[in-house]
Amino acid sequence: MSELEAWSKNNEDFNYSFLEDLIDSNSGEIEVGQTVYVGDGRKPKVSEFCDADDVIELMQNRGYDIGGEYADSFMDDVTPEAKQELDELLKSWMENHVTINFYTVHDVREYVLTEKDLDE
Fold first, then answer.
1. Which of 23, 29, 38, 46 has a CA positioned 20 to 30 A from the CA of residue 7?
2. Distance CA 110, CA 120 (A)
3. What percent of the chain has pLDDT over 70?
4. Range of the domain at 13
5. Are 78 and 110 in a shared domain?
6. pLDDT tens, position by position, 32-72
7. 16 shares its domain with 36
């Protein structure tokens, strides 16, 4: 998991990767002694979005939609090796074609702005 700093003025919107960006973007709205927030931004792994079990379940559900109870055992015979092959295919495709442009914020801490912070 990729980690980066995430800064916020209000402990809700972590839109800044650096303290300097937060200060520059909020010029005139922040002051020495004010509390801002910093946390660890983590981009999810592509493998968190979809795996072989998801695809197989989707196909089984669609099989049931199409064939009704006649499709009750559809894809029950997928081997662990076949599942692994599908997982690897999906992961490879996602790593080549999916750009993760968001992150979640963890371990948020308060940070009190100093005069030095605002002078830089």
1. 46
2. 20
3. 98
4. 1-44+102-120
5. no
6. 999 999 999 999 998 899 999 999 999 999 999 999 999 99
7. yes
Cα separation, 1 vs 99, in Å, equals 14
Q: Say yes or no: 2 and 20 in one domain.
A: yes
pTM: 0.67
**How far apart, in whole angstroms, are the C-alpha atoms of residue 110 and residue 38?**
6
Q: Count of H helices and E strands in the chain?
A: 4, 3
Contacts of 27 (CB under 8 A, 6+ apart): none
Q: Please state, in angstroms and rounded to a whole number, the distance separating the CA atoms of residues 79 and 91.
A: 18
**Contact between residue 5 and residue 88 where contact means Cβ atoms under 8 Å apart:** no
Helix (H) or strand (E) holding 8: strand 2-8
Give the C-alpha separation, 75 to 96, whole Å: 28
Structure-token pair, residue 116: 């030095």
In angstroms, what CA-CA distances link 103 with 1, 66, 78, 97?
10, 38, 34, 18
Do 15 and 35 share a domain, yes or no?
yes
